[in-house]
Amino acid sequence: MFNFLKSKKASSEVLNKAMLLVVGFNKTGTTSIHRLAQKSGYNSVHWDEGKIAKRILYNAANNIPLLSGYHDSYQVYSDMAFRCGNFRFDANSLFMQLDHDYPNAKFLYNYRDIDAWLESRINHGEVVDGETNIQYYRRLFGTSNDLKIKNFWRNERLRYEDDIRAYFDGTNKLIELNIEDNKFVDKLNNFSGFNFKIDAWGQHNQT
């Protein structure tokens, strides 16, 4: 896990702005949350073809606030991931640094049943650099055994959950929500202070 805790602070205007960082993995309703935010009138950015994650890496290496280049324009961030060649990066792993750089931000750990999530990742058909998600991992692991890949994803998620819960324990900065909770929007609103519209909540990019 990368955590560079000495970066320069963002401007006071950015620091005082309401911000929601969606730090669940892909295939846990990130597109639905993004659309919810947009339809509710908030500036939201989702994946941006990997550019968010790449910018975060650049910012971390140059000791500047992680969301610089985005934080003047957006309030809601989701699916901050990037992969190419043999490299993969999930910027949700930098939750400690994001909290340091944006101390007023709220964090949403969005999740779903772990077995359903694993199947959804296997079935995800979007192609990036000529490969679907499962094709990329098969090549990376040098295997056609999808169970091996599922076990890797399962363990990665469980370790991440332990880490993020330990870090935010005793604070009011993190909420964990199952995307299948029928009170998802109500709970998110009560926690975040945002006013997301219940009728704007729906499923998108489902696999």
TrEMBL record:
It comes from the Bacteria. Pfam families: Sulfotransfer_4. This is Sulfotransferase family protein. The lineage of its organism: Bacteria, Pseudomonadati, Pseudomonadota, Gammaproteobacteria, Alteromonadales.
